[in-house]
């Protein structure tokens, strides 16, 4: 039997093209390219301004069923699909999110794809990359420092320390920092107060960077960030603290999309990365728009399942950036569907048609949402595993055909682009179909109306309950003029409901909203449900324990 290669070993055996050659293939003049070594570069956002007249390519969204411990392979499918489209002669660019260090060192691992469908340099992308996340953390923490300094220096704005909503940020899973008390040590050491840290990908600065259209818009959005409230209940913004200019200065390079490549040299823009269960879960608007100018087809992904990342991509990002997707790919695995049907992780390798049939409603509900709620054509990509049987694959295909949706077997993990050609052909076909793309709610309704629309149409909840605190916050936010913003749901990724134990396609459940807050810079209301945390913790055995580097600087253990 051939020796099994890990993702990092496959990536390290690959010989990438010089990034200047990738840029040249896209027709990007070298004046727009800022190299970070030989295989990474930033593209100046002025490229977009100076190429506005170029027609946009077709936008393809890759999303997935509700995630399970069995894995789905959304990024792997996105990369393999792009390589497959290139193999059938299409001019394609893939646009992905940057990985967070939290999952890299925690339990989930990196986010550069897998097997023979990866973006490279894999180690760099999964670690510091071009420093974007560090810049975002620095801008977040500059604002926190200026806020506390303002209070220390006399508090001319009358900020109530008990109503500060802005937290510090670090791009690491560190539960110890969720709730802290700082400013201790005497009068000159700051004002003592309760505080806390978010993981950087949950910072509103991340969402702002990913939704900003240019540097001017970035600065305006930063200025609108609400950091807390005065004793009289009025919101205090970053602009009130005169912070947005310095924050934008820290972020001016981070705003530029990063150009890398797949193992098969397909161009990839990897930029930004808000979590989809606590933020909007999509790569930057700048990167997507740039990709649409560079390719005839753009493959992009949204975080977690279609009820989270895809809903926010379609309801928030597409609305703000005036994007119109042409097709959607729904990624599933037979193993994950059997898990939704009640099979334990240890038993997923055995054929079990009964469990598969019980788990299939999860896939079918996501597919139905894309077609019927959002009006977009869809294909199901079954991410192939060697343990899948013909009977199982036939059952998935039969049930999807009943919804009028085709199924393509994706073998990109094992075969790269060659294993994605069948999926690529179907995606190209779908892109030529007319569609009736629409959002799941209108902006004009109340905050509660919008949450109710998502809960009923997308999650298929029976009831929505806003706790008294959330109802009061909704009234206050509407009175402040934030009522017409879209809603970003903070919800578990493991279920259609807000209860992570309800697998499959649950019925009759209630979605409970416990808290609302405004992300005025990003331009949405965050509705917190269930037990969502904005600072994850490390597992009992963190992935960090297996990561190492040798005397030659070669990294091992990343996945």
What attributes characterize this protein structure?
twelve-stranded mixed sheet, 25 strands, 19 helices, 559 residues, alpha/beta
Secondary structure: elements and pairs:
Layout: H1 7-13, H2 19-25, E1 33-35, E2 41-43, H3 46-50, E3 58-64, H4 74-87, E4 92-96, H5 101-105, E5 113-114, E6 117-120, H6 122-126, H7 132-152, E7 159-164, E8 168-170, E9 180-182, E10 193-195, E11 197-199, H8 204-211, H9 215-224, E12 226-230, E13 235-237, H10 244-251, E14 258-262, E15 267-270, H11 285-294, E16 297-301, H12 306-321, E17 327-332, H13 334-340, H14 353-373, E18 378-383, H15 390-402, E19 407-410, H16 412-415, H17 421-431, H18 447-458, E20 463-466, H19 468-479, E21 487-490, E22 510-519, E23 524-529, E24 548-549, E25 555-556
Parallel strand pairs: 3-16, 3-17, 4-15, 4-16, 8-11, 17-18, 18-19, 20-22, 21-23
Antiparallel strand pairs: 1-2, 2-14, 5-6, 6-14, 7-12, 9-10, 12-13, 14-15, 22-23, 24-25
Helix pairs in contact: 4-17, 7-8, 7-10, 9-10, 13-14, 14-15
């Amino acid at each position: 039997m051939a020796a099994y290669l890990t993702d990092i070993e496959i990536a390290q055996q690959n010989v990438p093209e010089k990034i200047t050659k990738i840029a040249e293939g896209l027709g990007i003049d070298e004046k727009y390219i800022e190299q970070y070594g030989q295989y990474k570069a930033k593209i100046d956002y002025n490229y977009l301004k100076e190429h506005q007249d170029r027609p946009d390519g077709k936008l393809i969204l890759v999303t997935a069923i509700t995630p399970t411990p069995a894995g789905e392979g959304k990024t792997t499918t996105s990369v393999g699909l792009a390589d497959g489209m290139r193999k059938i002669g299409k001019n394609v660019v893939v646009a992905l999110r940057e990985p967070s260090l939290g999952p890299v060192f925690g339990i989930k691992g990196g986010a550069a794809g897998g097997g023979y469908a990866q973006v490279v340099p894999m180690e760099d992308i999964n670690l510091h990359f071009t420093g974007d996340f560090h810049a975002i953390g620095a801008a977040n923490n500059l604002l926190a420092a200026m806020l506390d300094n303002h209070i220390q220096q006399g508090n001319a704005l009358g900020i109530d320390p008990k109503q500060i909503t802005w937290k510090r940020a670090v791009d690491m899973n560190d539960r110890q920092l969720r709730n802290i008390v700082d400013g201790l040590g005497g009068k000159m050491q700051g004002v003592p107060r309760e505080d806390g840290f978010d993981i950087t990908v949950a910072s509103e600065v991340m969402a702002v960077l990913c939704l900003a259209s240019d540097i001017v818009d970035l600065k305006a959005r930063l200025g609108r960030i609400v950091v807390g409230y005065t004793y009289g209940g009025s919101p205090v913004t970053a602009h009130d603290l005169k912070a947005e200019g310095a924050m934008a200065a820290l972020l001016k390079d981070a705003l530029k999309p990063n150009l890398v490549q797949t193992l098969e040299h397909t161009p990839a823009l990897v930029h930004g990365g808000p979590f989809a269960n606590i933020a909007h879960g999509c790569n930057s608007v700048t990167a997507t728009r740039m990709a649409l100018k560079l390719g005839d087809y753009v493959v992009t992904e949204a975080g977690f399942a279609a009820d989270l990342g895809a809903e926010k991509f379609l309801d928030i990002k597409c609305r703000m950036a005036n994007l119109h997707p042409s097709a959607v790919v729904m990624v599933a695995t037979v193993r994950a569907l059997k898990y939704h049907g009640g099979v334990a992780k240890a038993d997923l390798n055995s054929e079990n048609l009964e469990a598969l049939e019980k788990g299939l409603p999860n896939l079918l509900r996501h597919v139905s949402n894309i077609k019927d709620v959002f009006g977009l054509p869809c294909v199901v990509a079954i991410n192939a595993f060697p343990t899948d049987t013909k009977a199982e694959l036939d059952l998935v295909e039969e049930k999807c055909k009943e919804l009028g949706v085709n199924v393509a077997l994706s073998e990109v993990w094992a075969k790269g682009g060659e294993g994605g050609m069948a999926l690529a052909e179907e995606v190209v076909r779908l892109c030529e179909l007319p569609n009736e793309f629409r959002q799941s709610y209108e902006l004009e309704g109340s905050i509660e109306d919008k949450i109710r629309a998502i809960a009923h149409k997308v999650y298929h909840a029976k009831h929505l309950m806003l706790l008294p605190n959330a109802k009061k916050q909704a009234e206050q936010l509407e009175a402040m003029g934030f009522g017409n913003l879209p809603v970003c749901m903070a919800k578990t990724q493991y279920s259609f409901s807000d209860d992570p134990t309800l697998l499959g396609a649950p019925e009759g459940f209630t979605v409970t909203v416990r808290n609302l807050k405004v992300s005025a810079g990003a331009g949405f209301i965050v509705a917190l449900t269930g037990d969502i945390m904005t600072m994850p913790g490390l597992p009992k055995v963190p992935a960090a324990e297996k990561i190492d580097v040798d005397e030659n600087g070669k990294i091992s253990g990343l996945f």
